[in-house]
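Researcher: I've been going back and forth with a colleague about how Small ribosomal subunit protein uS17 might be arranged in three dimensions. Neither of us has a model we trust, so I'd like an independent prediction. The organism is Aliiruegeria lutimaris, in case that matters for your notes. Sequence below.
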Amino acid sequence: MPKRILTGTVTSDKNEQTVTVLVERRYKHPLLAKTIRSSKKYRAHDAKNEFKIGDQVRIQECAPISKTKRWEVISA
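Model: Here is an independent structure prediction for Small ribosomal subunit protein uS17. You can compare it with whatever you and your colleague have in mind.
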């Protein structure tokens, strides 16, 4: 099964080798036919500490690295 790839914005880079990425998705409500924005934060592995707050990054699923990290940054 292919790994999921998501695009989001870095909201925190305070932890060592970890960035928090806010991924926003838009979908149409089935009954109201209104466009809804929902967002979710993912903690991703950034081995070189190269990404800073505000960067647009792509993250990919990976094997669990820690209790909360299951994603890794693949590109800016």
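Researcher: What would you highlight for our discussion?
Model: I'd start with this: The chain has a mean pLDDT of 95. After that, consider the following. The two ends are 24 Å apart (CA to CA).
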